[in-house]
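Pasting as-is:
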Amino acid sequence: MLAGVRMTAFLVVAPPFSYSGIPTRIKAMLGVGLAIAVAPRVSADYAPLDTGPFVVALIMQLVVGLFLGFLVMITFSAIQSAGNLIDLFGGFQLAQAFDPMSMVNGAQFTRLFNMTALALLFSTDGYQLILGGLLRSFTAVPITMTFSSAPSGAVLVTGFSQLFLAAVQIAGPMIIVLFLADVGLGLLTRVAPALNAFSLGFPLKILITVTFGGVVLLALPRVVTALTQGLTGTLVEAF
């Protein structure tokens, strides 16, 4: 029961399992199945608890599962944020919409990067590494943990800082290209004011974004692989 609560809470929050296209019943069944698989490991040093301590332990496992899932969500939000930056500098932000399936509010590249990251997680078996890191978290954070070993806020601060850093690193080349395009249009306007070069700004930036966006998209498999490998250690060292 304790392991199942942690597993299910993690699957509800962490991508790619948090995708709305996966029914909640399937997530619960997967959480129970994984809990049964890991039961021999987590029950090695377990002693029966009374009703009160058992309820407290359930709450702690719920907090731990949500916290670990939130760390995974923060890490992979870097890819979505990179797409958001490209939409912002490329002029696509005016066409943003809400996707109820992935719970993402953004324009074309935001949703494209998010769907690509989810597809890569399943096609490259990255989800298995994430589940492996979750299973190893039972060794670092046993089910009999106390409030004194609760998650630290410093981990979240580090996670958010890494999110922004990774987003800028992924979208950095595109941001530089689009910035240089704006600088070039500004210089052209100074040289030939009657040309009204800024009227060409939107179609030119959209053309540059679509052309060079494929280069950034080709780098996403390596990005997803690096993020997944880093997560396996983060899930264990979160506490």
